[in-house]
Amino acid sequence: MELLDKYIAQVGENLPRKDREDILKEIRSILEDTLESRSQAEGHPLDEKMVVSVLKEFGSPSKVAASYLPPRYLIGPRLYPTFIMLTKIILGIVLLVGIVTLSVSLFQQTLTIETGIEFILKKVLEIIGSLLSVFGNIVFVFACIEWALSLAKPEDEQTWDPTSLKNETDIDTVKPLSQVPDIVLTIFSLIVLNLFGHQIGAYFNDAAGQPVFIPALSAEFFRYLPLINLIWVLGLVLSIALIRAGKWQPWTRWFKIGLDALSIALLVSMVSGRSIVTDAADKLMAMGPTGSQIAGIYTGVGYGIKALLIVLIIVTAIDAVQGIIQMVKRK
Predict the structure, then answer these.
(1) How far apart are CA 304 and CA 317, in angstroms?
(2) Are the C-beta atoms of residues 42 and 50 closer than 8 Å to each other?
């Protein structure tokens, strides 16, 4: 039976330590029963040839161990469609921004054929690098979400009671996949604003042909950024908690209401305070036609963001009031 012991030992090397002992006992019991039945059926004592035959039918140790393990995915079937959809959207945006930036830079440069080709190749490589970097971040985020989903409490089939459906309401149920877009976009926004926020803006040549960069986000925005980060991180915590619980609970509803109140306070401050878009109209106007165009764009974007913030205040307030009404009805 030395061969059997070595086989079971190799199976154990591919099993998690927590469940290894119980699983190996089960496998040994199955193998010993199978060998005993085979010995009786063939009418002769157990020998090494019979052990080899039975083990070959069972398969390699890694195959047997895999049958006792849950499926392992970096991005599983549940998330894959959402992963593909968001990857196409985000990479499409990055590619579009890269192409627009390349086109603007190309028309502003005075280049020969050789320097033009070199310039284009350099920018194309930068765009490819950005796409790969963003794709890697998306995969990392979805892998984290896959891990969080694997921690979700499975439903107990033996204790589940069909009559419990009468007491459940659709409004309390949370589908894990419904939280995925929010998580991905929040993490993506955190990465972009915190790592690249100072690099967002207009790159162009002034009237004298000198390269100029005017940031799009003002210093006022970066004063708000720590609080924005806090709200978004708390939102991620809430999303992960909802995924694990599978439904809204009183504490998660109150947490959401508190988060909405904090968000409204921040949004009101941003609307009533100085613009979060750089106000450099006078400086830009002195930089020729391109500067004048960018000044107009910045002014328009500033008004647009103010309007967007007002809409967000209204939407968030409605969401908070609905949450309060639901809590009152429950009580």
Answers:
(1) 20
(2) yes
* Model confidence, pTM: 0.55
| 184 within a domain of the structure (yes/no) | no
SS3 11: helix
Considering the domain architecture, whether residues 210 and 290 belong to the same structural domain is answered as: yes
Helical spans, DSSP H, in 151-176: none
Q: Identify the pLDDT of residue 225.
A: 93
CA angle 123, 189, 90 (to 5 degrees): 55
- Rounded to an integer, what is the distance from CA 248 to the centroid of its chain? 21
Sequence letter at residue 182? D
Q: Do 145 and 161 have their domain in common?
A: no
Structure tokens that stand for 328 in this block: 């009152």
Quick one: pLDDT at residue 171?
59
Long-range contacts of 322-326 (CB under 8 A, 24+ apart): 323/253, 323/256, 323/257, 323/260, 324/257, 326/171, 326/253
The arithmetic mean of pLDDT across residues 102-122, rounded, is 74
Quick one: 267 and 311 in the same domain? yes
Residues spanned by the domain of 106: 74-150
Same domain, 84 and 18: no
For residues 261 and 263, give the distance between their C-alpha atoms in angstroms, rounded to a whole number.
5
Task: Report whether 324 contacts 264 (CB < 8 A).
Answer: no
The verdict on residue 300 lying in a domain is yes
